[in-house]
Amino acid sequence: MSLPSSTLSSTITLSTKTFSNSNFISAGHPQSSAPVTTCSSITSSNSSSSTKKYTSERIKLLLKQQTSTYTVIKNEKTNSSLCWKVFGFPAKKSDATGEYEKIEGFTSCQTCNQTFAYTPSSGTRNMLAHQCVKNLTNNNNKRTTSSSSSTQPKLNSMMNIFKKVKLNEKEINTVKDLACSWICRDMRSFKIIEDNGLKQLLQEFVILGSKYGEFDVANALRGADAISDHIYNLANEYRSILKDILQEPLESGCICVSPDLWSDDHKKIPYLGITATFVTKHFEYKIVDLCCKPFLGDDHSGKSLLIAIQKALEPFGIYDLSKLSFMSDRGANLIKALEDYETLFCFPHRINNVLKRAFFQLPVHRIKTNPPATTQPSASTTSVNNLNDSHESASEDEEILQPTKRIRKKKQTKKQSSSTDVNDPMKLDLKDLPVVAREIIETIKQCKKLVRYIKKNGLNKTIQENGGVALQQSTVVRWLSLINLLESLVTSYEQTKRILNNRRQQAKLNKIDEYTLKQLICLLKPFKHVLQLVQKGDSPSLYMVLPMTLTLKKALSSFDELLKYQTTTTKTTDDKENSSEQGSDEESELLVESEGFKILRLRVLELFNLMFELDLRHYTATLLHPCYRQLRGCSNSERDEVHLYVREEMKRILYHSNQQQQDVSPEIKKRKVQISFLQEYEDDNDLNSSSINDKSSGSEDYSYIPLQADELTRYLSMELDKSKLSSNPLEFWKDYQGAFPILSVLARQIHCIPASSAAVERCFSSSGFIVNERRACLSPDQLDNIIVIRSVKNLQK
């Protein structure tokens, strides 16, 4: 048979090197029975030395057409590369000896006979890119996954238990020297050494070292571009994971979404952040950051924002926004975007706005236009008139919004009298306030100036050396910081006074009266406790809004109630920050309410009643907490309306689901002992008695008994041991979901809604930490990827 001729680009000499018959495989053909002898020398005198010319294509053709003469023999050298399990060397059967002689300069696939030019210095890149090698790699991965799932993994890999070793002093010092060199040369934080991610990376290198011995870490580490590209792939995988996780809560209506807008401090790029809180089918409360994407809308109108929200949720399988609940601040664009959906507004934001308006901390002149974004202000901002700080508040205070599901109110009784003659507290100017009240406002301004002076001159360290605590600065957008400022100043009042006297700056303290500071702290203390409790994001919080609202109104109703509240919380709460409260019982008894303080207290109460109104879902969340199901402090008409709303919701759930009631014996858990100022609104121990005496709310004995004992009736009348109830209501509903199959679904839908939008603000805080000065050029899409990966990792803890 004649062979096809072709132009040869290179000439290869056919060597006389021969191989043993046991070291070759004929690809896809029966093994030849021709004898093969091993020769140690390439120039063996017994082998034929005829020279022929070959090309890759010609060898491939010969292997396919002349199977009795040409074959592929294995590479008998030890090689770690996977490609040598598929590739070998082409060889020709010698006519004289009947032995197979290797054709130098080529390598051929044993499966399809594909041939490449090859020398030891050329590498295996072409072979690794060959499809047969890729197929073998995929098959190995599948077998590895299958075997790992079917066999029991090692205990140390499951529990991350590794051998403990004791390094000698020289080895420890070497590690410390390298760590210090890295931190100093690359300007890294000392804390990076304690980073869990770094420990996991180094532990993986130790495992690889135990497998391969000493090797160049450059073989394992990849460059910045490779890692950046891999983050895109990993983020997409994690979005798919989140899509699967959110599928069941979405269908059950147990997801609440908190959207907001933010811009970074460096390039001022606007971002849309979305955080989801949801309750799983196992009644677990979860929080996840879905995105922090660059906002690409034509403008910041409500319509553009809604389109952006819809597009951002699509990768997670969320296309129907009517299945979601929304938690939002009162930014004008967010209100417009979510007007057709069930939205609750952030409780802490409203408290913050009430206090800012009550103490005249808003800019006097504002342009009445829609803000470009409800941005997250910088934590270092202290100016009252800073426009970035006022965007959110200005948009929130222009209009008094009614709740989405408003509860009907009784006819208003005689309006509470006030020391001021102003009819509309929303329009009252500071100049119209009585002088005694303006002096208290001026005290707050002087406190801020003093703290700025202390920090600017580095005097906090001196105050601490003299037994005081560091004075804390405040920002107008977060009133917790103002309360902390006042408390730190009272605690270190004597030390600060002594230091200012030594520097001849005592005039800075002359306008700050310690007695006035204590009264301000007394007024703001209830708000501090409420804000701290309601912004905890690891468990349901919506049920706290109703009792907290009643608590604030009661505390502000009179100075005696305010002192009573402070005395009670001092005894029952674990407030580690309040070293100034030692002996506060005696101090409270000596305090007498001044006229200016009374004006401000009543102003705060009036604004709180005017600017915040409870939603039916606030009442429902409280009712669906087993500790507060009697709705103490509410009137009978309010209870009746809440019960009616719950029954309507149960009908809706029953319409969409054909669940059957199952009697399941609940698992009794020991309740953690925790005393709170909310204890006043907990149910009585004697649950057989439904009489509630609450003169302040005008409520009467509740004796509503429907004709049919439905789930709500049985829930309200069941006897529970309060000492075994948890503060997390989902634990109760997990245990009793068999007894209350419909009500437990409603509990999931209600308790997935947080009381605040603090979660999305924490997302922005993380984003601001990522896009710092050194990483100001980070791609906005990459920031979104990092947030998603970080969020899923936290979710999987």
Automatic annotation (TrEMBL):
SUPFAM superfamilies with a match to the protein in the record: Hermes dimerisation domain, Ribonuclease H-like
Pfam families hit by this protein: DBD_Tnp_Hermes, Dimer_Tnp_hAT
Ranges of biased composition (kind: Basic residues): 405-414
GO process terms (BP): regulation of transcription by RNA polymerase II
Region (Disordered): 28-50, 370-425, 570-589
One cellular component (GO) term of this entry: nucleus
Comp. bias (Low complexity): 37-50, 370-383
Domain Hermes trasposase DNA-binding: from-to ranges: 179-215
Alphabetical list of Gene3D superfamilies matching this protein: Zinc finger, BED domain-containing
Annotated InterPro entries: HATC_C_dom (IPR008906), Hermes_transposase_DNA-db (IPR018473), RNaseH-like_sf (IPR012337), Vacuolar_transposase_reg (IPR052717)
Highest taxon of the lineage: Eukaryota
Every HAT C-terminal dimerisation domain range: 711-791
Gene Ontology MF terms: protein dimerization activity
Name of this chain's protein: HAT C-terminal dimerisation domain-containing protein
Protein species of origin: Adineta steineri
